[in-house]
Queue: 4 jobs
Job 1
Amino acid sequence: MSTIRDVLEEYTFLYQPIIIICEWVPFGPNQFAHFCEALSAYKKDEIFITPEVDMHPETPLFKIEPYYAWVRVKNVEEGKRVYFESRIFYPEESKVKQTENFGVTVEESGFIFYSCKLIKCSADENISKASLPVEYASLDKLARVVSDLLEDTSTLMNSMLNSYQKRILSVIFPRSHEELYERKKILCLITKEIIYKGRSLREHIKETKLGDLLSSYSDFRKELQQVLGFVINWIELPDGDIIIRGRDGFLILTDERGVEKYKKVMKIILSLLALETFYLHLFSRVWMIWDSLNLIRSEISREDVEHSIGKYRIALSSTLADTVILWDVDHLARFALNYLNRQIELLRGKQGEGTLGDGEIIRAILSIVNVDEAMEVIRSKIEATKSVLEAFRMDIDGLTTLVNTFIEREMRSIRRAMWKSIKKQTRMMEIEQAEKERLELIEFLSAGLLIAEILSLMFAWLESAFSLTFGGWEYLFSIAAIFMLAMLLRFVIRRITGEEEESESSTQ
Amino acid sequence: MTTNNFDANKLRLLSLLALYTKPAGVENKYDHYIKEYALLSIIYDLIIRGILDYDYSARLVLWKGAYLFMNISQEALADLELLVEKGYVKRIKFSTKGYLYVVGYSITERGLEIVKKYPEHMEAVKNALKCECGGIMSIIIEDDDAYYVCCDKKIRIGCLLTEDVSYETQPIFV
């Protein structure tokens, strides 16, 4: 069964193809040791691994959806590589049945190989016009199997890598940790038989040249490109083996005897191409960093800076983090390259072997993959990346200093404005105080006048009611009384004001 | 087969390009191109709806700067290649902000002449891409898929939805 929405026209079928997928993930000895520890590789453990993350480490119980992979360690070569078997239980469409088992080899140098043999690929009566048994997978369906494997191997590895490695991968392959998004990997298909338009490819080749079968608009080429990407070149070996190279991988037609030989040789070639692919993407990230630095530089040097200077400092800090991450890749890539160099030297050493050895296969593969050039390209990319990243770090330092200068200048102008404001406030307070004292004086005078008025009325009443006369002493008495009462009033007012100010300051 | 070895698929591809692109001088002084992933999204939709008769499969492509699987027809790409080779379609490559490249396609005047000769194919493509509010549906690319836009509504194409087949594998080690 399948979820294919189209009616397929299937021309090419592969018999139980071996699928090898390779990618390079920055590892190195420390990460590798950590990885083996996480897998409990030393006791050849058998575990289930889920891509879910424990977001509540404080709780003793947890629940997860049953989307996991089963992993069993097969073998460990201390400090070199670990082999484990995995079975995927990630959810698929209900009408689709997948038994997805594959072997994984993780090398200390960071090369990871996911490999399996496609035993059965279901024939769906509704969509397939093919009458071949289920051991034959059409390239149309194989393309879907491969994309499923590419997705699931990424999910599996994401569950096993540490956050540092995942961070590196997400810088190189943006959003690759999210659902739907992927990392670029290299593919190799090895099969013992190819059926094209009802006949074995070997029979076709007796009548038609392989080049003609792979001509620009041929059905064979179009179907192949669904899996391998653009077909670059191909070679026929004297013993009838065929190697076709596409932009994203290889298809090899061989016999039972050749399978193991090709696996050994292709492991090195795939590693080389995986590292090359990684660096291709790394370098485009490098130029994107360069772009963001240019943008920051042009924005902060403008008179009318749009955003606050602090925002640029945050942006620079994040760019620096990306630069440091890419910088860290450098020594891991060199480690991988040195390992690869040794492997390629061994491969070259075997080139001379006769037809019974790997010599012929190696010569054929080296004729369609320019190993020297690829090695040279990777080496120069590593060198170039290092010097560019070094320049970026200096650039970031410079920009950070510039941003700090702007921030200092901003702070100075803020400080100046603050002093101005304090001076202004002090002056206002002084004016306020003088005003207050003036008001107080007016209050005293008004109070004095009021008391004088009351006293004069009182003396006038005493004089008219009781005919009492004071001989002018009443005026002196009034003056003294007014003075004493004014002083008393002043004392009372000051006391009240003092208490009010005290209570205000204590509440603040 | 029709003249010039153009089958219905190629004529419909040309019609599709004639709907979304124009050579300079037809409308204004500019060549109008359609980006490859937008074109491939429409092609996928037309395959599903039976307007084009191609096979497709999921391929890893750069979609807005990140890799994801998209249903792509190699047969359609081969036909486009042929149309470019014969001068009916023009192809241009331009760089993106992410230092990667995007390919654009545009119909040429020779291509337009061919389209005019086969109005029935243009009609079939136009009907499939007609918007109820008039004109043809425009296309926008978002993070999760490509969408047609018609009467201010977005219609999901589904070109990023991968398909599954039943299979069985056994582990091997390299």
Job 2
Amino acid sequence: MTVRIARQNVPALATLAVLVVLYVAAGLTFDGFFSLRVLVNFFGDNAFLGIVAVGVTFVILTGGIDLSVGAVVGCTTICSAVLIERQGFHPLAAFGAMLLAGTLLGTAHGVLIHRFNLQPFLVTLAGLFLARGVGLWVSTESVQADHPFFKTLSASKLPLGDGVFLPFGALMFLVVFAVGVYIASSTRFGRTVYAIGGSEQSAHLMGLDVARTKVAVYALSGFCSALGGVALVVYTSAGNAINGTGLELDAIAAVVIGGTLLTGGYGSVVGTLFGLLILSVIQTAIIFEGSLSSWWAKIVTGVLLLAFILLQRALQPRQ
Amino acid sequence: MKVHPIAYSVAALALLLLFNAFFTDGFFAIELRDGRFYGSLVDVLNRAAPVMLLSLGMTLVIATRGVDLSVGAVMAIAGAVAAVLANGDPGKALGWLQVSHSVPLVVLCALGVATLAGVFNGVLVGRFGVQPIVATLILMVAGRGVAQLVTEGQIVLFENPSLELLANGSVAAVPTPVVIVALAFVTVAVLVRKTALGLFIEAVGSNAKAARLAGVASAGVVIAVYAVSGLMAGVAGVIACANISAADSGTTGLYLELDAILAVAVGGTSLAGGRFSLAGSLVGAVLMQALTTTILTRGVSPHATLVAKALIIVAVILLQSPALRASLRAPKEQAA
Amino acid sequence: MPLLQMSGVRKAFPGVLALDNVSLSVERGEVRALMGENGAGKSTLIKVLTGVHQPDSGSIALDGAVIRPRSPIHAQELGVSTVYQEVNLLPNLSVAENVCLGAEPRRFGRIQRREMNEHARAAMRRLDLDLNVTLPLSEYSTAVQQLVAIARAVDRECRVLVLDEPTSSLDKNEVEQLFSLLRHLRDQGVAVVFVTHFLDQAYSIADSVTVLRNGRKIGDWKTTELSKQELVAHMLGRSLEEMPQVEHEDYVECEPMFHVVGLGRRNVLDPASFTIYRGETLGLAGLLGSGRTETMKLIFGAIAGDCGSMTVLATGTRDIRPRSPRDAMRLGIGFCPEDRKEEAVFPGMSIAENMLVVIQAKRGWLRPLPKRKAAAIVEEQVAKLQIRTPDSHRPIENLSGGNQQKVVLSRWLAAQPSLLLLDEPTRGIDIGSKFEIRRLITDLAKGGVSFLFSSSELEEVVHTCDRVVVLRDRKMVGELHGADVNEKRVMEQIAKGEA
């Protein structure tokens, strides 16, 4: 029996293959790499990145891009820290306000992009400046946020045995991830996202609500970025306006390495998880190696990005 | 009568200067000290130099309907190469390349690497047909890693007075960076206007299909403009590292790609490609710096400039948007 | 009472009356072909029917009730569905999703995938289609995608099905598959409007035909009562009796310049062979979509051929198949494309720049034309082609269509090609410019330049050309010369179409 592989599944399978090869190779090279604790850290350390990447996946599936996510993360951390520490807000109220602000910024992106047919990278670039500017305006210093509520949150972690716990941030990421998978695959909104990525004009002619969906993906991405910022505040108990510098690139890299086409229409939230795990394996392996330095992660990420982009290009039907 | 696109940015700059003439004491004061001009205006030009350089290359790229997001990272690479070579420690990366005795060779190597980075972008876009944003994103991600690889993650210091002169010296009392910008402007202008390259760039950006059918070697043109963009980023990177006598791969050129795109858009070159104005982009870059300086001298938080830039980007692209223009006009049905 | 009745439809655009008092009626279970050449008004009529355009006057009635479709979606809800030439579905989603999206079965907001697939399977069964509905649409050929598009239309209460040139990129078997589906629908009482430019297809599927020309309706006929010759005559607007005989000088074979030998590409053009002589104007005649543009683009390397070759005797180049326009230009070939706006004009650039781009492309970027020489060329071309502009540094958009076309022509003349391919050079321009361009061609041909000339106006082809190659359904079907170059003979060839 021959197994036929549909063309659009190739990137996803390539992602899985890369992940397995990297993980096994790292595991065979470094003692203790296969441990549960390392695996849990993949999720815990990059929880905020993962939450952001889920939102970015939806944007890229429509064929758009969101460069503002890192800045929104930074802005969220500093603003909520200041609200909690200096304005006496309850963390939940501060987080609620920031989630609302992130969603509104995303909605503004979406409206500008859809209504006026502006280039997404430029609009969200403006959003990046805006969020960074506001964040730095609020405070250029790192602000500690000690609130008893954080202790409660940090205490809510899932025991996995062997004294290993799944931290709160990781739980948050897994919930966002599960919701993201559900929305993408099983709701009309999710399928419309794919439809727009396949062909915006066709989606419109098929009577799908292109306008609302396009605005909604940017709003969702804004929400996820703010939520990523919240996860980071809980993780570090502090806020800093320069948090998340360059995060947009990591998020996009995770999405693309996860097999989602930058031109939209093909890919999945599950793939983004794999992409994220690949980045985590690379980072962790470099730490285990000890002599290699952190910038190798960027270079390897860039090489993987290049490989996946060329692979996608080769799979696209030529004109 | 159609207004020349550069007119808007010149007018905005004039207004801003006028504002400062009234409200900022000594804005126009220029004094000659130690054979070099000093003053707010000189400062504006000097600080705008890196973005002006980037905007020259970015103008050509945008004229072909592309964009180069990697220029900030390429600046970091060029700065790193220049610093490491000037440092000349044989035990470090590139230690086999002993050229620290010769500033021209150091600069040449840095610019060569930057141009190669540009060619890499150009080949992806021109040969493989990858979307410009996507293609240049790769170096935007990996470029800083490469720069850190060169510097081995450290801030590489060097002592080389003649290299430092590139940033802090002066030629005929004019700061060297400003002179370099002028030279770069003349070089690029001659390159595109005294050869047929400018015509081909506009043709590719104006109508890529027609350009192919008219026999224009589009791939070559595209590779050339990204190469120029890389080269300009290299020059800006060398100046940036000469300025602080060190290479800081993490922050050199960070977000400057955005400033360069903004300068080009403000300078009147359409982001949809075609006609371009190099002088307009320079005015755009100066305008943005003048605005930043004005905000700073007003005593407003420096971070307000980021917010101001964000609003200006949105305003400029909205003004260029055909969709907005169409909706402002009386809704008329288009002929099929 | 007919199921669909459009009556007295008028639609004007600035400067053009696209539809003038046009009516169209289709019965239940009838397939009506809508035919006409470029600018006939077919696509405007379809756009009015599907709600893309609102008519200036006139009405549309469906089953006796007046409808006013506001958009394609609205038209769909009213029961009028359209399947376009370019499949307007989503290649990245499954066949089932393409059929059901927008009306997919849901429970508490969750799409019921199994139910959806079952529904799609049932829809396919009703149309006798055997597809795996869970595979992505892109796994299937364009033809099958068309069928899925029809299945989607039929799945949502479609009473009138409009097919807008659906067969342009299909091969014979695929067309047959499409037709059997259409017969199936017809038997179920659906009214079908079939826009096509393929004569044979119109005759094999349509019960009746409506011909439009220049925004007017020429007439309705039963296909059984109308000969192909008459149909072609109606479409081209020439009645068979009153066609003037054109005087052609006695045809003398002169020096051959280009041999085209079996040049073609699968699904684009069947291999075609002909010779072009020095100083002759060879016509390409055929209906819209017969392969005129494709022939020229294959010769020019704009479409890469997959078989055959060319021999250029002047340069001594044998058996070459140009792979890019630059290849063809090296052989002394030039090409004025049919679609001026999309493929020829550089908007925002000056008249002079538009004129000099080809000659400059040939020189390369390092050898810019000296200013004085460039000015001389522009001045010469403006005078020679009588381009009416006060200043050649103005943007080209300021010119009228006719003058823009002259600029495009001049960009090639300045480069002095030995063979110039002119694809509908007179389309959409004023009468004055038309005659000027034709006269220019005649003059230049006397000077030794060869032309390959196409036009949808047959009269123009026979008046301008010494010989004519006739194309039909993407295939060369004949070659006429001497006294045979007249509209009657060309139309016979187009209608009969035996190679």
Job 3
Amino acid sequence: MSEAFTTAIILLTTFLLFTHYIQKGLGGMSAPLRQFGMFLLTKAAGPATDMFQEKEGSGAKTWMQTGVFWLILAGIGGFLSAWHNYDPSGLDSLSNIGWGYDDGSALAYFNEVAMTTAIFAILLGGALVAHSRTTGSPLASEANASMIAMAWTGQALLGLVLCTLDHWDWITYGATQMALYGLVSALLVMSLLVNSLITLGNRGKSPVSVPSWFMLLGLLALLFSRVGTAFGELLGWTGTVWVADIMASGWVPLALMFAVGYHVLSHVTGQPIWSGSLTKGSMFLLFITIPPFFLAESSHADSFTQSIGAILVTLGLFPVFAAATNMVATIRGNAGAVIDSPGATAAAAGALLLPLFALLGYFTGLNVMVGDGSMANAAETVNSSFLYVIGGLFALAALFHSYPLVAGKSLTGSAGAASWLLIAGGLLSTVLFLMSDWSENALIEAGVEDTSTGLSGFALTGAFAFYGVVIGFIIAGNCVVKTLLFGNVQAASTGNASDISVYNMVEGTTSIRELFGRGVGVDTTLVIGESEEDAVGGSTVITVSSELHNDEVDEFPMNFDEDLVTLTKWLCGRGTTTAQFFAWADVDDSGEIDLFEFSNALSVADIADLPPWDIEKIVGVMDINSDGKINLPELDIALLNIRNKLGIEFIPYEDEVVEEAEAEEVDEAEEMAEDTTEAPSKSNLKKMKKAELVDLAKSMDLDSSGTKADLIERITQA
Amino acid sequence: MTNNTILPDVSEGTAEPSASRVIIVIMSVGLVGLIAMFSNIFGWDNMPVIGEIVPLMENLGGSGIWYYLIGIAVGCGMIVANLIGGVLSD
């Protein structure tokens, strides 16, 4: 087991470095690494990425939609498995189309793969929603996230097919093939991690949110696990594979459950997470202990290693209890909102039941890990129920809360029924299955040879109770479909609260809908007829309150894009109004600046020479109506917001014009004065009197004698 | 007190509480499950299976599991129908 300790040390070091660099950043390496990461996300996959939408939230939606597919498959598989414990010949009538039931191990394996994939996909989708909303930015590449979601489903299907072909001896699916499979899987996780980290970089100076922490650490754990499995299988390091299994089956699902649970409950109740200490404790201890689920037998290890393992499993109860307590306490005082929201109901139920399952998993799992293994059947039941009930509840929380949020639609369908069916069916079936397991153990100890006859009642009632779980999953899938297709479009930013405390309006027409679209709330003060800038630019002045941002409003982030700030300073320094800049940048006079025009304008003005994805991001910040282009009001709002926030002084261009005009006037006067000292024309001289001509000749130091004609001749020749 | 004379003794609201659907679904699933299950629990095997009711399915529906599978099929069909309906309506 020395490999296990070596792997644990490498793992701990990796986690410490990872968290350090997330907190402190990468300094000068951030920009080039970001560019390289964006290249990998958008270009490295070639045309595959272009098949998916770059629309905000599409990545998280795709993950959850693929997860629903697996959830329903896993639910049906779980019911078949439960029924076959009662009647193994129930589906024998399908044998002519290939159905066969062995000892149940194949179906159990399918259920584990399907449910693990379902939970990972749905919870990751929910965590991505939380990550995106708390960083105030869409994913760095939504298209790439969608592509990875489809690839993840593809690799899970491929894995099942390979196992089946191996079972039929058509191919050999050995250690080498599994290692290769693990490396491919690791690449997919790596892509997700890079996407999430670049997204995190858009948060500015805001702290990393709790859901983001759990998601990022969960992804890192999964990446480490996949790589560890690959190398462990290739090199025969069983200890490394053992650690990798713990990470994949314990850390990752729990981390994603916590990410979704904290987000959903805090958002629905409108209250902050109850305890920072419990949050940090659950986060820190989760990744250095062994969760009490899916514990494997460790008799091949020495007694010292077994003792260390058992202690770590015991300590592993702490983060579970801490997170569950913290989530339940977060809903204090606003339980009504939790009951009204099916997603929050599922999350709260998951948080309440999690400690119970953890205790069951602890006693049964330790019996398997370091004991005589007499409770292996009960441990298997607890692990399976943990996936279906606890994992299912948090998955429903993501589907019923995060999915409508990211789809911009209202939740449609009998979501409440799905949550309660899962709670009731899942809890009842777990109790009945465990009663069956313990009764079976008692009968075996009593020396009864045929235990199945007396236990068929438990198996049947357990299967019946589990039917509630299946129906709950199907109703949840139907809710997702109905929400996507028939859900009412939620009016974004039309909540009671708004970041904008004062909104100044200029002349013209507008509508309440347009004002809501610009982030104005029902309590925003509208000032009509006042303008801070001259009327040339058609200015609009926005004052943003210093309170925390409302989660629904993302048009005016507290941290501005660096290049936009440079542009604002550049314009103000030159005395160029937004309207003048707009007219200059709008090359085709379409009334809108597209991505190319904006990129060109920044480049010509020597402000920034950015790649297309960065230009798209900056335009996205300003693009209130989400048409992918910038119109004059959008540009005006964005730049004035920066100006007012950062106190950038506008130096009017007109002052310089006046000075120049004055200077020109002085020059003209001087020229005129000079002209007056020059000799007038011959015709003018003839109109003058002789005395005047004499004076003029004297002023020009000429001879003043002679006739008027002589004087004129002399002056004109001078 | 005056309103008591205007309102009838029994009145029924027009709005339907969402929780009632939850109760209906749970009761429906529970009752169907109990019907399909009681014969096995109490050792009473007169409960006909689908294969005995529908002659064409004689070889297929030979077990009580088919009652449950019909419910699953209806549920999955509902999802597919919603998908097709939504796509066609667009």
Job 4
Amino acid sequence: MSKTDELCDHCRTKIDSVFNPATGTRTLELIAGQRLVTECCFVADEIHFTGNGQIVFAPQKKESEYCRECFVICRKLVVKGGNKPGGFNPCGPDDPGSDYNNNNAITWFDRLTAAAAGADASKAPDGTSHDKNVWSDVGQGSPHGADGGDGNNGAKGNTGSSGRSAPNFAILALEVEIGIGDNLTIDFDGQNGGKGGKGPAGGDGGDGMGGRDGSSDTTWPGTGCDRQPGNGGNGGDGGFGGEGGDGGAGGRAGTITVVSTAPNIAGSGVFLGGKIHYVNDGGDGGEGGKGGKGGKKGTGGRKGVKTSECDEAQNGSDGEGFLTLEADKGATGPHGGGGSLGFEEVKTGTCADAIPLPTLSVSSVTPNSGTRGASVNVTIAGVGFDPAATADVSGLGVTVSNVVVVNATTITCKFDIGALAPQTPRDVTVRNSLIHQATLTGGFSVVP
Amino acid sequence: MRHRELDSAIESAKSYVLAQAREGFPETCHVMFFPRRAGFRLLRERQASDVFARSVVASVLLDAAELDEDASFQRAIADAARREASYVAAARLADRAGGWSYFPDLPELPPDLDSLSAALILFARAAPENVSLCDEPVRLALENVRSTGAVETWLISPKDDPRLQRTMRRGVTRFWGNETDVDVCARFYHALRVRDSARHSESVRRGAEYVAGRQRADGAWEASWYHGQAYGAGLCLSLLRAVGTREESVRRAVEFLRAGQHVDGGWTVFGETDPQETALALWALGDSAPEPVIEKAIACILDYQTREGHWKGSPWIQMNVGRARGLSGPTLSYSSATVTAAFCLRTLLWARRRLSTRS
């Protein structure tokens, strides 16, 4: 199915409401600022972008149900101002849409923000910790303090959400007015993936337990030391921070199809002339989340208090801390798949026939006659000539060459008249496209 | 040091000591065994004591309450001190004129001057109606003042039962030793001053001279009954400062104490940083301690505080078993988390007041 047919299937009613010769509204839509469009078809006789205009296809319903296909249909598209895509960065991970401020664009709503970032992970559990100053008999079976537990290592952070896939998009415009320095961006790229969540911080190392105090003899006369003091337990190491969450995958881009007259979509046509820009190579993957920091060291337990006659115990060693050590950042999410970009000449016999083509007429041919066997340089006057317009003469024996579209009102060309060409008036036709042509009946005659 | 941290430490320490006070300071109980085979003639080898420690703790907490602006804490400590005074009053020995013995059921151990002084200070501050309980023991002590101003530690009265006198004298000769103790004398003269400074002014002055005369060249005093340097120094400094006649002694003592602070901010006992010694040293230095010294010392004390708000008991009382025979050691020790907490809390409250005055 041609895009024109598809477009007609979706937008026939809207096209009729605008272009019906009897009842059509023939509206002119001035796009200044952001215009949210919740229908699949945005149809107007003329659409004018003012340099800071954006048509943004938004979800139809609350739960973000987009049209699978979005359409912009107009007879005439006028673009003023705006910048090239290179002049801004539409793919920034946090808020790509903000870069469309002060630019002309046609895009879709979720393209304006990145997908949700992954939640920052909470800190990993701390290691078992003891009072570094106190010994307690909690099963270590020793006068020495128990060691503090190592802090747990952080797990990997949460992945950012994947970007949404963009809807497909088609634009039908039969006339385009866009001057030097004017720009329009058509962006149906996938939504950028969400940023990865921050990795969890490592758990803190637990404090070592204090050693059991030494004790003095309680029986006279004693030796002064009844029980040797215990060593303090070692502090636990801090855990390593968790790696940051990976960025979410970029959304798949939608297809972009341009439907217009042949000259507009030819290699040098306005749609390929470098003033209208297409962005649909796939949404960027989200940036990876920052890695979590390591946990604090546990403090070594204090040695037990000695009495005068007891030996000296040892303090526990502090664990190792990793507070300043940051785990690796998460990986950037994968790039979304690109969409295709296509150009199609508007098809006749479809609803597009209702859209009035721009005025095209031939008013004169100068000279308006030539003799058999002669080559005549002629000037065709009229209005609405496309830069790629062709010229033709009816009947046998006259061939047209060296066609030069000087401007929209003048074409120069050469008529080579055969020696046996019938001596009859000929119709002269200027053709902008297959469906768009104008003829001056009897505009040229072959004479003896 | 963060003031919030200090506030938090103070609050948890207050909670701990108040909980102990409500229970009658059970943790202070000092239990020892005096075997008959070692020469003791007693019915029960197991002896327990808490009167002295409770007297001291109650007085220290009265100091602490005076440094705090928390009226509920002040009331609670005042109530506790009155209860403790009643307990101490009830523990006065009925059969001996010397007043209070550290182990009251140990016949070989006479009433002692230190227990008397601790009781007198507490009574004078919290229960004046009990002060008269000390009159006879004080008379006995003053009768035994030597020409140097020293007072004998053991209070054995000629009025005591002769058999008891013999037993006690045997104990002094065989177990406890008959030296005079500067730390004990310092507390006694301080107690006299608290009791009635006008009436005892001459005695106190002589006592101060004696204490100053016992100062070592390096500024320290040799405390007989207490571990470390700070507690004995604190007792002596308290007396000398009150009398005000020995500024040079005070200066040397302060210099000695200040030189004892270690890099970690603390003072040591047996070469190890000790929070109680640190608290006592800072308390003894008082206003002569510069702020950096205070800050470091307080940080050290806080570092030793347990999560339950107290401190492990630091070595406090020492008992030189070889003393009667002219030997050094072995040394038996007594420590109490409650005593340590009281000393530390008092110093923290003092430091908070001092530092807040600055800011």
